[in-house]
Amino acid sequence: MAANDLRALVAYRGLLRGLVQRDLTVKYKGSLLGVAWSLLHPLVMVAVYTLAFRYVVRVPIERFPLFLLSGLLPWMFFTSALAAATSSITDNGTLVRKVAFPRAVLPMAAVASALVQFALMYTVLVPTALVMGAGLSVAWLALLPVVILQTAFTAGLGLLLATAYVFVRDARHLLDVALQVWFWLTPIVYAASMAPETLRRWLQYNPMLHFITSYQDIVTKHAVPSLTTFVILAALATVSLVTGWRVFARAQKRFAEYV
Asked: How many CA atoms lie within 13 A of 203 on its CB side?
């Protein structure tokens, strides 16, 4: 990210904050439960998946609901952020055509809004861990750098997809299909160690595997990811963010013509 681009984002931090507040307000406007939906939604999903994979398929994982929550919530953050970022430019076409501001504010605000909701949802892990007897530990402090790196990785992809969607409207449909396949190739409802050896080697090329297993190890095993894992996560975040930013920066001058 160029220094002048970073300064522009900082200068427009008020706009970024306002867009995040708008997204959250619109999301819960008129809702009886309001923010409580951020807690209820993942709990309902965990109940369904637990019924299917713990009592029907019988996946042999100890404290399965906790294991599932620890990986499912980061995945939900990832998918919701990408979906919102992808359409962020086209959904704000009037702003893009008539107002001068750093266009990157829009996908960044989409990711930031999803991050706030993720933070709210992840709080359900604390009572879940206590109820299931897993407890808490200082290893949980390692969640912060993992979240930061995942956010950077997601923001980079969001910038790429936002650019693609301006010029190719099929990008959103392709994303929906890709995320469905990607979900099952990521160890969320199963442990990575359960995959066959040949498949396990290929799964290592799935960037989300490294993020999800880091969350799972911290929460369920109280194990801080290794230095090698953090290097991998940092590399994934850097490549994604730098690539996404460069592609976005080169294309943004033409956005007004297409939205």
From this structure: 24
Average pLDDT over residues 65-91: 94
Summarised one tens digit per residue, pLDDT across range 96-151 is 888 888 889 999 999 999 999 899 888 888 888 998 888 899 999 999 999 999 99
- Which amino acid is it at 228? T
- Quote the CA–CA distance of 208 and 253 in Å, as a whole number: 31
Contact 119, 38 (CB under 8 A): no
Residue 137's contacts (CB-CB under 8 Å, 6 or more residues apart) are 222
Taking the C-alpha atoms of residue 253 and residue 32, their distance in angstroms, rounded to an integer, is 42
Q: How far apart are the C-alpha atoms of 24 and 158, rounded to whole Å?
A: 18
Percent residues over pLDDT 70 in the chain: 91
- pLDDT value for 37: 64
CA 219 – CA 214 distance, rounded (Å) = 9
Gap between the Cα atoms of 255 and 251, Å rounded: 7
Q: What is the model's pLDDT at position 239?
A: 97
Asked if the model's pLDDT at residue 205 lies above 80, the reply is yes
User: CA angle, 178 as apex, 174 and 181 as ends, to 5°?
Assistant: 150
For the chain, the maximum distance between any two Cα atoms, rounded to a whole number of angstroms, is 57
CA distance 191 to 180: 18
- At residue 117, what are phi and psi to the nearest 5 degrees? -65, -35
- What local confidence, expressed as pLDDT, does residue 240 receive? 97
> Which whole-number Å values give the CA distances from 189 to 9, 67, 129, 192, in the listed order?
38, 8, 17, 10
Cα of 87 vs its chain's centroid, Å: 16
| C-beta of residue 70 within 8 angstroms of C-beta of residue 215 | yes
